[in-house]
Design brief:
about 240 residues, alpha/beta, Rossmann fold, Arc Repressor Mutant, subunit A, 5-stranded parallel beta sheet, 4-stranded antiparallel beta sheet, about 40% helix
């Protein structure tokens, strides 16, 4: 009798190039991932809704729709209409590598953005990182001081007051809430929330942190503490 195969996670692979799709599926199967092949946007949406995957690898250039449209549908903030698990991880795989392309994809709710051509070993590491973060969100509710984060509903309240957040503001808060008194460096946050590999000259983190601070506490801004020159933590020790 053959030994039972222990899968790490189940992935939907959305890629319109048949050879690339087959090669990627073969490699991931060899590395103990379950794979569901999706050559079209329609296939990706169907499999993400009914296949119970943990993560979607998403190409942007698809024959029947833009990958960004797939991403918007999956990250639809209207929970009454959204048919998809809010904890589904999404990594964009694209030949478009400009900063504008990356920011556009990440702002639409991608967990990471990998530019083609890429090294398979790096992709494996990024898959593992997103799965670790998403696993941390399996806890339904996280509470830090007066902040309550409901992960399935992607909702946040402070002292009972509902706080509407953008996709990236919610993701930033989720990372900080994992270890609320620890200082997360700028490099860590740009990597884990936006998928950046270097600091560069972006002010994306500072802008999002500032907006998140004002939304959580408009009067005193006591949450999202800026540790100058290092990074941010959610609350003081």
């Amino acid at each position: 009798m053959l030994p039972e195969r222990d899968e790490i996670a189940k992935l939907v692979i959305c890629e319109d190039d048949r050879a690339t799709l087959e090669l990627l599926c073969d490699h991931l199967l060899a590395d103990r991932y379950g794979v569901l092949a999706a050559p079209t946007a329609a296939d990706a949406l169907r499999l993400c809704q009914f296949g119970s995957p943990d993560l979607l690898l998403l190409d942007l250039a698809l024959p029947d729709a833009s990958g960004l449209d797939v991403l918007r549908e999956i990250r639809n903030p209207d929970r009454a209409l959204n048919r998809f698990d809010s904890r589904l991880g999404v990594i964009v795989l694209s030949g478009r590598g400009t900063e504008r392309d990356r920011v556009r994809g990440l702002d639409q709710g991608a967990d990471d953005y990998v530019v083609k051509p890429y090294h398979y070993s790096e992709l494996l590491a990024r898959i593992a990182a997103v799965l670790r973060r998403r696993k941390g969100e399996r806890k339904a509710v996280t509470r830090v001081a007066e902040i309550e984060i409901c992960h399935p509903e992607r909702s946040v309240s402070v002292g009972g007051r509902i706080v509407p957040l953008s996709v990236k503001e919610f993701a930033l808060l989720g990372v900080l809430a994992q270890e609320p008194t620890r200082v997360f460096t700028k490099e860590e946050l740009l990597r884990d929330v936006w998928g950046y590999r270097s600091l560069g000259h972006t002010r994306t983190l500072e802008a999002h942190a500032s907006r998140l601070r004002r939304k959580l506490d408009p009067e005193s801004g006591r949450f999202v503490v800026n540790c100058w020159g290092v990074g941010y933590r959610l609350v003081e020790p």
